[in-house]
Amino acid sequence: MRTTIEIRNSHIRTLIAVLVFSAIELHAAEAVIAPKLQPFVDSHSLAGAVTLVATKDKILSLESVGFADIASNKVMKTDDMFWIASQSKPITAAALMILVDEGKVNVDDPVEKYLPEFKGQQVLDAADKDKKATKAPVHPILVRNVLSHTSGLPFASPMEKPTLDQKPLSERVASYAKLTLMHEPDSKYQYSNAGINTAGRIIEVVSGMSYEDFLQKRLFDPLGMKDTTFWPNEAQIARIAKSYKPNKEKNNLEEIKISQLAYPLNDKTRQPMPAGGLFSTAEDCMKFMQMCLNGGEFNGKRLISEASVKQMTSRQTPAALKDSYGFGFSTGNGFGHGGAEATNMSADPKTGLITVWMVQHAGFPADGGKSQGVFQTAAKTLAK
After folding, report:
1. Is the preceding omega at residue 246 within 30 degrees of 0, hence cis?
2. What is the DSSP letter of 102?
3. pLDDT at position 383
4. Phi and psi (nearest 5°) for 39?
């Protein structure tokens, strides 16, 4: 009996070994993106990356290359986490559009309807050569203005120092209301964290929930975005890829901290930043993009109306402006958004292709900046 069991166990171990080896060979055979990015890693112009290519209902490719931590030789893994920064913007916009669908917010309403502190806000008088005189704007900023960077609000307020995550959202947004608008609403496109943060505050006031709780309940949980958070826990922190910038000689990489956020990252006294505070993974970002590409549905469940997704993902900036931006999304050839440390997620409704590019770079030495383009070119071959 013992001999029979030993033989069987031996056969099982052999079978497992064969299956594992076959899986490794299969993975290696299917690797399309990583080999094309390896030269950038070898030349020290790219630390590492996680790449994902998908359709609205399946993953076509999920690969990693290089290092999550160069100093410790920690190899990048496909479930590693990244600060996605401004990729938080379309997520905030999607949350607000849920309230639009429920009839609780209208994008053509003045912001002051929901946040009375914005009443009486002034704009710089363009006719004043000294740029000191102010006047009442042609119309107060609208909800659609804060979602599309056409409000006239600046990037941030003077109180948001040394990092952007220190003061409660209510205080930060109240400080924006006291600022003079830099231009008439709708007259210019000016990228504004303050605008998207204001949208986040509207979510709180209208829903009666904290901004972060609303996101968790209405987006992250239904989408299964289990690793998307403002406060990564200890286990998640261990999975966050290190951030890098070019060294002084521009021929290698130098490790840095995220300048916009305070450390430690799991400190709950840090405040959520609707415009750029989230950490996430490639697969979590893909789920959000799949929902958008599916017109607001995910796994047969509707989260946002098709009409709201269309507004998010199509041009909402005035035709006279050169910049094409929806609600929280850059638009043009499809829709998507990047982050401060070169992350990106995008979708092309024409090809049905979703791409997610996860790196942590505040600039690239040598030709490292071309790595994302190489990824995008390789990704298109998977759609055929």
Report:
1. no
2. T
3. 75
4. -60, -35
pLDDT at 128: 78
* CATH superfamily placement of domain 93-207: DD-peptidase/beta-lactamase superfamily (3.40.710.10)
Question: Side chain identity at 229, as an amino acid letter?
Answer: T
| Spatial distance between the Cα atoms of 228 and 153, rounded to a whole number of angstroms | 28
The DSSP result for 237-290, as a single string, is HTTBPPEEEE-TTSSSEEEE--TTS-SSTT-TTS---TTT--EE-HHHHHHHHH
> Alpha-carbon distance 99 to 26, whole Å?
46
May I ask the CATH class of domain 32-89+211-381? alpha beta
Q: How far apart are CA 134 and CA 143, in angstroms?
A: 22
Contact 47, 63 (CB under 8 A): no
CB 360 within 8 Å of CB 367: no
User: HSE-up of 99 (CA within 13 Å, CB side)?
Assistant: 24
Q: How far apart are CA 362 and CA 265, in angstroms?
A: 18
CB of 137 closer than 8 Å to CB of 121: yes
Give me the pLDDT at residue 25, please.
Answer: 35
Distance CA 92, CA 85 (A): 12
Q: Report CA torsion sign: 62, 65, 71, 73.
A: positive
Domain with CATH 3.40.710.10 in the chain: 32-89+211-381, 93-207
- Residue 384 has a pLDDT of 66
pLDDT means per 10 residues in the chain (384 residues)?
39 38 41 95 98 96 98 98 98 98 98 98 86 92 98 96 96 98 97 98 98 98 98 98 96 96 96 98 98 97 98 96 97 96 97 97 96 96 80
Residue type, 183: H
